[in-house]
């Protein structure tokens, strides 16, 4: 007994080899004397040592041997302790279901034996399992029980473990509260995106950020055609679809959300080839819907052993997928309307039906109105929009409203295509020597650095409007670095 206690002290101080030697001596003495309770306790201590040496399989096997001895001697306390060890071994193997079951058995045995200290230690394990599930409420309840018992018994070493767990619980509570803010901010960022294609990439990027997953894809279902992969992160489209077919097809078929927090513990999924091929640990998948129609699915997964996705992450992903559905439908409608307007503008231009309200126009006022309208999307991406106006810039002859549309389109395109935290410069200057015969004022819009390549030219409506004013439109682009749009306009007489 004394040697076993000395072994616990050695293990606590980090001398695992010394602890193992003392435990083996204790076991030899117990075997000679036929002390079954001592044998069961020593097997439990050796199993705990296996856990410290990162051998959960060995710990579980040894705890099973000790449990048999404890049952034969009707030692309820040691039975409970050994089930606690098996719970820790199952947790180390990422088998959450087995760990929860073992904790339940341990608590029932220890409550029956009125073993308050051992029960409190089991509550610490229950707290850790709740943290793994991202369940701050259950974690706090279990930790409260453990803390009360340790304070009552004056168990200082165990109280230190409580303090460590308390920090983890508080961190999870902060994360849970911050998820609402994160979802709100993600929705705000999506609201300023332009175009369905770019929006799909942004939706997937936001989903990975919100859940902490490694990879993902968006699968869109379009009437009359097979589902297609519309956006991918972390793998090429064909590989992602192949490895995720089991989960993707289930969500496509049912239209219901699906979370597999630990694939290793789900027999019906862990043997599927599409999952085994990649060694997936956890998967989240939610349908993207709008107005009762299923537009597709949003899928993310993780292979990291220490960072399993949880049911709570699925709730966040499902809420975000609903927002994404609305954003995608709005982007589609806006894109469709833009194309129709540009087509009508082109047809009107060709038919000579466009009538300009020609007057002397101050370009500085035009730019000021355009930039004010774009303040929100620029702020959402932390982009600085700088306006510089040459002294004595002469007015131009044109339609004020049409010129506001031109500048808004050019600057909006630059904001959309520039990276977060970039700078967009708007310069109003006199004509440039490069444009011979065009000494009038010019509008120059530059975005740098770029996140995506801008549309060049940014739609026919801009070119048509500039042509209607007798001006020139030029583009200077360095891929992945910067793009400069320049509009030269005739000076007013």
The dominant shape is: elongated
**How would you state the average pLDDT, rounded?**
77
Q: What's the helical proportion of residues?
A: 55-70%
Radius of gyration: 33 Å
Uncertain segments are 237-243, 262-278, 433-438
Q: What about the largest sheet?
A: 5 strands, antiparallel
Q: What proportion strand?
A: 15-25%
Strand order of the largest sheet: 2-1-5-4-3
Number of beta-strand segments: 12
Distance between the termini: 106 Å
Secondary-structure-based class equals: alpha+beta
Number of helices: 19
Give structural notes.
With 493 residues, the protein is an alpha+beta fold. It is 60% helix and 17% strand. It contains 19 helices and 12 strands. A 5-stranded antiparallel beta sheet has the order 2-1-5-4-3, with helices on both faces. Helix 4 packs antiparallel against helix 5 (76-92) and helix 9 runs antiparallel to helix 10. The termini are far apart.
Helix and strand topology:
Elements: H1 2-12, H2 16-33, H3 36-52, H4 56-72, H5 76-92, H6 96-112, H7 116-132, H8 136-153, H9 156-191, H10 196-211, E1 215-220, E2 228-233, H11 237-243, H12 245-254, E3 258-260, H13 267-270, H14 273-276, E4 282-290, E5 293-302, H15 311-351, E6 358-361, H16 363-373, H17 375-380, E7 384-389, E8 396-399, H18 400-417, E9 418-429, E10 442-450, H19 460-468, E11 472-478, E12 482-488
Parallel strand pairs: 7-9
Antiparallel strand pairs: 1-2, 1-5, 3-4, 4-5, 6-8, 9-10, 10-12, 11-12
